[in-house]
Amino acid sequence: MPVITCIDDLKRLHRRRTPKMFYDYAESGSWTEQTFRENTSDFDKIYLRQRVAIDMTGRSTASQMIGQNVSMPVGLAPVGMTGMQSADGEIKAARAAERFGVPFTLSTLSICSIEDVAENTEEPFWMQVYTLKDDDFMQRLFDRAKAAKCSAAVITVDLQLMGQRHKDIKNGLSAPPKLTAKSVANMMTKVRWGLGMLGTKRRFFGNVIGHAQGVTDGSSLATWIAEAFDQALDWDRIREFRKMWDGPLIIKGIMDPRDALEALNVGADAIIVSNHGGRQLDGAISSIRALPAIMDAVGDKIEVHLDSGIRSGQDVLKALAMGAKGTYIGRAYINGLGAMGEAGVTRALEVIHKELDVSMGLCGRRNVDSLDRDILMVPNDFEGRWA
Ligand SMILES: Cc1cc2nc3c(=O)[nH]c(=O)nc-3n(C[C@H](O)[C@H](O)[C@H](O)COP(=O)(O)O)c2cc1C
User: Could you say which cofactors this protein requires (predicted)?
Assistant: First the structure.
């Protein structure tokens, strides 16, 4: 068993053990990858204020996200095709999350279906929903999530159009993937991954094939996906989705205070400040930089969560101290999954938990709900004055 002390260790193993096409799919951002890079590097610009001689016993990272108890406010973000990083990847990640006591969010574009995950887990998970044109599919997706006892829906609003990732085009990573001699040769070197894939039937988009009208195989899937995303999306359409789902609702992909106010008006229970991990609008600011203005606009009226760029428990601590009530990790747990399956996701959560707990203590705080800007040293120009 390799010694894993940080998320970077998992990332190195993920790279070694998973086909290049799928590793690159996770470890990339759109166009120049500026936003992808800055999501992470902007966390490094915020410093922590060391305090001493303060009783640090009895610390707790336990909190709540949308009223649900969590052992730390760090959920697993929805990640498409998780089941290609490791066989049955969504089930493995959901199991690791439930054992750890944090929420797991299943992507609409997952490999394992809602029903697959529900049958193989005990605790309710959250369902991510893309804003698609197909009304029939949308209603059925919400109904299936309800039948599977999902305890929240997460509507992603930042993907009316797909951002371009150069590596995916070069690698033939599309839905479904286009296999070339080179990519097949690369896959054959990933023995552990290959054996896992041979041992499962779950290799296609489980929430779509057999559920969307006319989608029965890979080629009809490609046509459906190309047509599915709704470029005409507006807040009235999002209100229609609100009516289709009467449970807790989270709106994901907010980067501007005006959109945060719209999400509030729709009746969401929480918003996620997110730029999709730098995969959509390259050139957008990092989500941690976008957070303060959004907190000012809606922070006292709605729960504000954040993702994009979190690679450590210290990043989580900084986001919480800046006002977020919850955070999510995407690539950090995908690195764990690609490296070591379910045990790798657990290890990612353990690493982040320890970093969060120890850093919180060294800042002189004993629980995550007491965190505030006083533990941070934020550069004066961090929030920027944008013309
Ligand atoms: C490989 C990959 C696939 C993703 N697929 C989805 C998706 O299907 N739905 C969604 O709402 N967000 C998706 N996201 C965005 C994540 O939910 C999350 O916003 C992002 O990963 C956070 O950034 P981080 O990876 O730096 O933690 C995806 C992210 C990655 C890396």
Answer: FMN
Give yes or no for a contact between 187 and 19, defined as CB atoms under 8 angstroms apart: yes
Give the pairing type, strands 152-156 and 326-329. Answer: unpaired
387 falls within a domain: no
The string of pLDDT tens digits covering residues 85-115 is: 999 999 999 999 999 999 999 999 999 999 9
In a domain? residue 22: yes
The verdict on whether 14 is a catalytic residue reads: no
- Residue 165, pLDDT score: 95
Residue 311 in contact with ligand 1 by CB distance below 6 A: no
- Is position 156 annotated in a ligand binding site? yes
188 falls within a domain: yes
Residue nearest atom 8 in ligand 1 by C-alpha distance:
80
- Kindly state if the Cβ of 287 falls inside 6 Å of ligand 1: no
Instruction: Give nearest CA residue, ligand 1 atom 31.
Output: 26
- Retrieve residue 71's tokens: 């052992």
Which amino acid is present at 166? Answer: H
The tokens describing 91, both together, are 């089930």
Give yes or no for residue 277 CB within 6 A of ligand 1: yes
- Read off the CATH number of the domain in which 80 is found: 3.20.20.70
Give this prediction's pTM.
0.98
Structure confidence at residue 245 as a pLDDT band (50, 70, 90): very high
The answer to the question of whether 276 is labelled as a binding residue is yes
Q: Which of 284, 328, 337, 290 is nearest to 309 (CA)?
A: 328
Give the tens place of pLDDT for each residue, 131-189: 999 999 999 999 999 999 999 999 999 999 999 999 999 999 887 788 899 999 999 99
How many folded domains does the chain comprise?
Answer: 1
